[in-house]
Amino acid sequence: MNTSTRTPPFYLGVDLGGTNIKVGVVDDAGHPLSKTSLPTEPKRGPEAGLETMAAAGQQALAQAGLSWGNIRGVGLATPGTMDIPAGLLLEPPNLGPLWYNYPIRDRLAERLGIQTVLQNDANAAAYGEFWGGRAREARSLVFWTLGTGIGCGIIIEDMILEGAHSHGAECGHIIVEMTNGRLCGTGQYGTLEAYAGARALIARCEEALAAGRGSSIDERIRAGAELTPKLIADCAEQGDPLCDELILQTARYLGVGTTTLMHTIDPEMVLLGGAMTFGRDDRPLGRRFIQELRDEVKRRAFPIPAARTKIEYASLGGDAGFIGAAGCARLKFGR
After folding, report:
1. Model-level pTM?
2. What share of the chain is helix, strand, coil (3-state, %, to 5)?
3. Does the bond joining 9 to the residue before it have cis omega, within 30 degrees of 0?
């Protein structure tokens, strides 16, 4: 982290995940000055979680050479359903029932003695890329987070699309198949997540193998390897036709969802982030994945947005969440 050039005021971003809590100090220009990470241990409950956030915050401040008095506001990014105006976590699935209906914003503000704002983690990551990442020069952004499920954040003219009920930009649940659609974890059928998420990729691979499709991955599984998106990607990179087809099919489904959003809000930029991006631009598979998505968009979208909308990989990686959370604090308290 470069702390030689810093622009006050300063904000603390907290990215609460099911495994780790990432915390960092970010300046007014969107530059991270420090970051740290501690285990979440969600089974200990939210009060213990607050203590972990405070400890991580203290570490981040020390790294940046600042004190709590230098922080204008705190942004907290969390997963799951929430009531953003009320500051309530409703049912975060990867944290567990101890965290349900918990007034996390106000409790954290009381613990730290600093005004705090709550935001959905995908929205926060989107804002991180918009404020301090690859979309810094854009005026509007669709940001996909690709992992176990499909998350999304939408930014228009420096404003996060939260929606009337804190459920804006839940675009992983766009319906892409109306007839005999796959079952999604939400109980809906035919959603984008049911076709393009990590679980969906694994399920489609299992179905193809069960139907008798030949693949080198079958030998790997018989030898004890666990069927994961990474294993599918490894086999695809080694020239396995089935695995390659499954990954490019994922890109095409994501292209369908992207086209829907382009026809709805006409964003200047679309970014892909998250764990399931197949090496991004650093690997041939990642480059072919995003090109397949672009090609699908060109087949389906109106010609002008199809030609002009930039579709790229995100740049901040795992830092997007805490940077964006800090940016949300800046939006709320910095003007």
Report:
1. 0.94
2. 45, 20, 35
3. yes
